[in-house]
Amino acid sequence: LFLLFFSTHDELQTLDVDDAFFSTPEDVLARALKPEGGVKFIRTFQKQGEDQAINLPPNLDELVQNATYSQSPDPLVWQFFYDLQGSQEYPFPGGIFQWARYRRNGTGLTDNQKIFSESLHKHENTLTLATLRIFGNSLGQPHFHFNAHEMGYVLSGCGQAGVILSGTTSTFSIGIGDLLFFPVGTQHFLQSTCQEDLVLLLAYSTGNQLETLRMSQYFHGTADHILAQLFFKKQPEFQKFPKPA
User: Where's the Cupin type-1 domain (predicted)?
Assistant: First the structure.
């Protein structure tokens, strides 16, 4: 079972091998593929009524005699593969992230993970993926991303999501199988609302290093005298907010 993300805002267009084959004129197929029997052999192929990329033929055992694959060298494999579950954990107050993303300096990556990281960065339209675990009854604080839309799929647990816009906040309950979408620059938060951990698979529409700003960062990054003017509170009052680690 796979969960797939595709980096497009347009309707997804897919061309399968059989679609391309049956859309090509018979004489062109014969000249390109050069089978024994030429066009006559090409004409023995019949387009199926069902999409064979989804529906396997009932007589598959008769059709396939050998389906073995040799493992490719690591420099080739790791351009397209990443062991996300086995990668380094990045804890934060209330949960854990694990990332499959581009990193500018490659800190904490193995040699093979660096191959994957650089492979992501070579493509303009690609994805950063992550698993997010928010511990039971804990909060993933409000934040937003400068350079990516975010899409998430709830794998387990129950929780609440919030989208904070100018003057309004939209909140809604989330559970297993729900899909979330936060456009670039949209401040949002996630929290677990039960004893069970809330676990999501997240995709971000960037091949660059993901840029994120959290509420604790920009609040404490604003000078106390500016905050005093904005909130009509005495400047020393803002010393009551603990600085983030």
Answer: 98-239
